[in-house]
Amino acid sequence: MANKQFDVVVIGGGPGGYVAAIRAAQLGLTAACIEKEPYADPKGEVRLGGTCLNVGCIPSKALLQSSELYDQAGHSFVMHGISLDSLKIDVGTMVRRKDNIVTQLTGGIKGLFKKHKVTLLAGHGKFVGRDGDYWQVEVAGKDGVEVVDAKNVIVATGSKPRHLDGIPVDNKTICDNAGALSFDAVPKRLGVIGAGVIGLELGSVWKRLGSEVTILEALPEFLAAAEPAVAKEAWKTFTLKQGLNIYLDVRINKVTQGKKGVTVEYEVGDETRTLDCDKLIVSVGRMPCTDGLGAESVGLQIDERGRVVVDDHCQSNQPGIWAVGDVVRGAMLAHKGMEEGVMVAERIVGQAGHVNYDAIPWVMYTHPEIAWVGKTETQLKSEGVEFRAGQIPFAANGRALGQGDTTGFVKVLADARTDRILGVHIIGNNASELIAEAVVAMEFGASAEDLARTCHAHPTLSEAMHEAALAVDKRSLHF
Ligand code: FAD
Ligand code: NAD
Description:
The structure is a single chain. By secondary structure, this protein is of the alpha/beta class. The protein folds into 3 domains: 4-160 and 287-355, FAD/NAD(P)-binding domain (3-Layer(bba) Sandwich); 174-284, FAD/NAD(P)-binding domain; 359-472, FAD/NAD-linked reductase, C-terminal dimerisation domain (Enolase-like, domain 1, 2-Layer Sandwich), CATH 3.30.390. 31% of the residues lie in helices and 26% in strands. The model has no long low-confidence stretch (mean pLDDT 97). The site of flavin-adenine dinucleotide (FAD) has 38 residues, from helix 1, strand 2, helix 2, helix 3 and strand 4.
């Protein structure tokens, strides 16, 4: 029997892959998406959505929301005159709620595939060769192996957690993101290796629910990629106000697993210390998934870090093979992968798909949230760019006061000569939503004055953005 033929075959059904497949179908191409992972599906059927929907963005944000409400009920309600006699958390209910959201959303993507006539091929996808105009891709599934032919292949195989030598992850006691999203009870003492996004987000979840949380970070600087003023405010809030124990400049010597938990031996300066904990999360970054892809059989170039080598438009070294998302250079963020998926589908049909890598927002969903787009002061200084800065604290914002949550600020950085916005940095309640305005402004090449002359609803947190833009020209009205 002849192989099935498609205009586009996507390998990997995460945000980069499923969006690429849907956009390709919208553009009139025949599209298929290969996905191998059932994640936690009770029937063992593949689940779309990749890391993001199954063990990443969505489940972590569900737990962050539940734990935030618990924390507010315990600590913030009282200032509004609301008192509770007793407060309890049922971790089982919290985790089931998270699982239900995941099931709903992953099932929703299968629905979108039906709507757009994208063929789902369940199994492990790998290149096996080329025949005429077509790349040949093998799909090894539960029911056997088939080979499909594709004029274009989009590799969207994503990433997996990086583990450390000598620290065996069993996702029961020593966990990566997958295990850390499904604890069945609040651990009394939680250790975390890595004070990056996952360490701080998941560390916050379990801290709010009552764990004693200790985070061990190798770098001497906290949140080195963030705006320095934001990192300083975050350090103060997370350690002094919220009680996360964060140690920097740490070297992990040894991790020993016993019947009752885990002991981490680590060094800080000349001192050797031990940390006893009931659970340990290892969150030290992620690695691209290109093993088992058959890249060598088609001459697909992979770099020394295991990523598919692509140009600015996600085109690989082979014609008709593209790659998007965590498996290529750049930020490992769901929205970056989705934008790349759209770009590639559009370029396949000859359109001018494009991603503006300078306007990709970053968000950490801690409390307060941290969000930024564009350059930091550190980057601008090292590039020798002259800039002006405007910074407004939420303490001067009426809505923040009304909400009882005034931590943080908005900071706008603009070119000293042209006033063009070069970066916007927010730490505070709802920073994840507020940053969208800055992203749009930067996409349109706006100046700080453009933001300053834009009417913002009153009273809203977005007025802090307005005031920060005014402050660039030293003419804030309410601070
Ligand atoms: P993935 O989502 O990893 O999907 C790749 C898919 O390909 C997987 O389903 C995998 O099973 C499949 N696959 C791999 N190899 C094959 C093969 N050979 N054959 C068939 N299928 C294959 N990002 C954000 O933007 N915001 C957040 O809030 C956020 N929170 C996160 C929280 C956590 C705990 C984690 C771990 C990540 C988070 N991320 C977040 C990152 C985000 O999840 C990733 O950037 C995103 O999922 C990458 O999308 P992708 O499509 O490139 O890859
Ligand atoms: P990360 O890169 O954000 O942080 C890893 C941290 O571990 C770094 O600070 C690093 O210095 C530290 N580290 C590395 N080796 C270490 C060692 N041996 N000992 C101690 N510390 C060590 O990675 P992550 O937190 O694992 O998250 C992975 C990726 O997933 C992120 O980079 C991000 O792209 C994505 N993610 C995004 C979000 C979001 O957008 N809100 C949330 C979670 C994850």
